[in-house]
Amino acid sequence: MKRSPRAVFSAQVPARSAGGAGTEATGEVTDPREPLPLLRKELGTGPSGLSGREASRRLAVYGPNQVRRRERTSLAREAAQQLAHPLALLLWAAGALAFVGGIPVLGWAILAVIMVNAGFALLQERQAERAVEALEAYLPERAKVIRDGESRAVDVAEVAPGDLVVLEEGDKIPADARLVEGAVEVDLSMLTGESMPVERVAAPAEEGLALLREPNLVFSGTTCVGGRAVGIVFATGGHTELGRIAA
After folding, report:
1. Counting CB atoms within 10 angstroms of each CB, which of 12, 45, 65, 152 has the fewest?
2. 171 lies in the same domain as 120
3. Are residues 220 and 155 in the same domain?
4. Would residue 70 count as lying in a domain?
5. Cβ atoms within 10 A of the Cβ of 104, count?
6. Within this chain, do residues 225 and 161 fall inside the same structural domain, yes or no?
7. Range of the structural domain that residue 79 is part of
8. Is residue 196 part of a domain?
9. Per-residue pLDDT of the chain (247 residues; tens, 9 = 90+)
10. Global pTM value
């Protein structure tokens, strides 16, 4: 079947130089819906998965498979930032001009707007931080991967692009992956709002579907509710759909 022009997908994968040696790069790469042999080649992954050494090397390049949060600053510092951003500075100037121009009522009104705006901004920041913390709970603590031809359990933070992950009933999916073997039913409600599980199977991509609708892709933080499959990881950490929501 003739395929439409290939889309470009932003994910973490090891690019290959002209000489064939693997080199790391982060940027625009081939869509994970490409034919499986091409995806395996780009990810540098064979039927035996990554070697332990290669997985460690990729983790050093791409970082841990975690939902990243910015470091929390003190409340006083955040308040100062809200009171000193460009729009706030313009309002401060307008308030000062109002007082100088003999319109104190307008001046106090502008100051009130500055304070209320800063309060709402601080509240939104705290709510966003709590939301990101809640997203972290969707990731499992451990994941089953195939490395050096053997199945082993690793911390979810150690899952790297190119890893082969084993998915079974009851497992939380540790990263965005393309199924290469088997079939599973997955609860995608956290991403799509669908109340019923959907089937995901190792099969060619269907033309014209959105990424979340592709029948051969599974996503970080969703839950396998039935079946068994093996998938090749194409995105981890902040490059997953879950990571984009957190960002």
Report:
1. 152
2. no
3. yes
4. no
5. 11
6. yes
7. 75-136
8. yes
9. 444 444 434 445 454 433 333 434 444 445 788 888 888 988 888 889 999 899 999 999 888 888 776 666 677 777 777 788 888 888 888 888 988 888 989 989 988 888 888 888 888 877 777 766 676 777 888 999 999 999 999 999 999 999 999 999 999 999 999 999 999 999 988 888 888 899 999 988 888 888 888 999 999 888 999 999 999 999 888 888 888 877 7
10. 0.68
